[in-house]
Specification:
Layout lengths: L5 H7 L4 E2 L6 E2 L1 E4 L5 E3 H4 L24 H13 L11 H8 L4 H10 L1 H9 L8 H5 L4 H13 L8 H15 L3 H24 L5 H23 L9 H10 L1 H16 L23 H13 L5 H13 L3 H4 L7 E3 L4 E5 L2 E5 L1 H13 L25 H10 L4 H13 L4 H8 L3 H12 L2 H12 L1
Antiparallel strand pairs: 1-2, 3-4, 5-6, 6-7
The protein binds zinc ion (3 copies).
The site of one zinc ion has 9 residues, from strand 4 and helix 2.
């Protein structure tokens, strides 16, 4: 079959491809004298071909003596119809997405194994009751998210901002668990302050997974603060600056998170005026790598074929361009541009040149990560997630990177430092999505040599 890599070879055995002789989409099992790949029928022209019992075409028959595509059509009809009466009207676009897949083998396999397919079967009993709220009410969030992605891909449900939905659903669940006197404060804070601001950012397309985590953290810190008041027999009205100082010193990790609630409460005169918690003093980034380690890891990403492709691509993007994982998961195929000699990746409207090795890895990654189901107009993610139409979860990706010994944060800080030597802080802050102030502070650090910087840090730690 010629030189192909391991994943390509295994995929070929269940990937129909166009036969060089008859032109049918078949599993190709032989090679013609001229070099093209051939299907079974064309390799053994003397034998009568096996034909599909439904469409009559020569085919690689599955149990039931039908071709893969006719088998898939029958299974999808079974899955989505009540008593085999045919797919109900509202679900027909979904049937089209499932049966229209490039590779029927993959969808058949998915229907056999996936709990999402079983959930679809259940939901198909009441197709008119399908909407986002109905899905939000279901348990098994991962499976439900998969089905939601499929229904959005099919155009049966409208797309929505899933990060915003994570926040609003989490807030609603959290609110019902609060005692009434806390809910009376937390509910307006969450709905009219945090969630309203999140909606504004979402409308501009800027509400990220990390932003949703931060907003949940702000609400949780507010709840924690009210519990602390209760345990000290205090109330917002009786709160004094010295109480607040005690709280802030005792809870360093919650200190910054509790600021939005205390500001909000103070602005609404629920507390005495003039109370404040200072933001903790800005920290210089504490996690850096020694240059040699940084370069060794970059070399691994570009050359180590034992590492999974997605890990190599992610690791290289972090180390070369200081991209955070939250940005890497949002990268799509249409951000790549090629001319005769070079491949460019557009980051924040700036096209950056990719080293040929990385460009090759990215091509391979796109080839090996075709989504199982895809709609006509959706973004093709560089790192497609498990859920149709969604990118990978950055938290899960961070775990994967750590497991392979390529943690992202220190590497990213180091990559920013290296770039700072050549680029002005404003460009850095735009390119890497960090605050201009942070970029300036780092630029000051980078102006000295690495050795000086590391020496100062080690001295401080000793
Ligand atoms: Zn390959
Ligand atoms: Zn053929
Ligand atoms: Zn057929």
């Amino acid at each position: 079959m010629g030189p192909v890599c391991g994943p390509c070879y295994r995929a070929a055995l269940s990937t129909p491809t166009q036969c060089a002789s008859c032109g049918r989409q078949r599993v190709l099992v032989g090679r013609a004298a001229g070099g093209g790949l051939l299907c079974r029928t064309c390799v053994f022209p003397g034998e009568p071909p096996e034909r599909c019992g439904a469409c009559g075409e020569p085919a690689d028959l599955l149990p039931g003596r039908r071709c893969p595509r006719c088998t898939l059509a029958a299974r999808v009809t079974d899955l989505l119809s009540v008593d085999g009466a045919g797919v109900p009207e509202p679900l027909q676009p979904l049937a089209a997405v499932l049966t229209g897949a490039d590779n029927p083998y993959r969808v058949l396999e998915w229907m056999r194994r996936s709990p999402a397919a079983r959930l679809l079967r259940h939901l198909a009993l009441q197709p008119d009751a399908l909407d986002h709220q109905a899905l939000d009410a279901l348990p098994h969030r991962a499976v439900t998210a998969y089905v939601r992605g499929l229904l959005v891909t099919a155009g049966i449900l409208p797309p929505r901002d899933e990060n915003l939905a994570l926040l609003t659903n989490w807030a609603a669940r959290t609110m019902t668990a609060l005692p009434p006197q806390h809910a009376a404060l937390i509910r307006p804070f969450a709905e009219w302050h945090i969630i309203r601001d999140a909606r504004r950012r979402s409308a501009r397309g800027r509400y990220t997974y990390v932003a949703h985590k931060g907003d949940c953290g702000n609400i949780r810190a507010a709840i924690d603060f009210l519990n602390w008041l209760d345990s000290h027999r205090l109330s917002l009205a009786a709160l004094e600056q010295r109480h607040l100082d005690t709280w802030a010193t005792g809870r360093p990790s919650l200190r910054a998170r509790s600021i939005p609630f205390i500001r909000w409460a103070t602005a609404r005169r629920l507390t005495a005026t003039g109370l404040l918690i200072e933001h903790p003093p800005a920290q210089l980034p504490g996690h850096f790598q020694v240059e040699a380690v940084h370069h060794e890891e970059l070399r691994r990403c570009l050359n180590d074929t034992v590492l999974p492709l997605d890990v190599r691509v992610t690791g290289a993007l972090v180390r070369l361009y200081a991209l955070p994982l939250t940005r890497i998961v949002e990268l799509t195929a249409d951000q790549l541009h090629r001319n005769e000699d070079h491949t460019y990746l557009t980051i924040n409207r700036h096209p950056v040149l990719l080293p040929p090795k990385l460009a090759h890895l990215i091509d391979d990654q796109l080839r090996h990560s075709t989504p199982r189901h895809s709609g006509p107009h959706e973004h093709r993610y560089l790192l497609p997630g498990h859920i149709p139409g969604r990118p990978r979860n950055p938290a899960g990706l961070a775990d994967t990177m750590r497991r392979h010994g390529l943690p992202a944060r220190a590497a990213r800080n180091t990559a920013v430092m290296e770039a700072l030597v050549d680029l002005p802080p404003m460009v850095i802050s735009d390119l890497f999505g960090i605050q201009p102030k942070t970029a300036e502070r780092w630029a000051t650090l980078a102006a000295g040599s690495w050795a000086d910087f590391l020496a100062v840090r080690e001295g401080n730690q000793g």
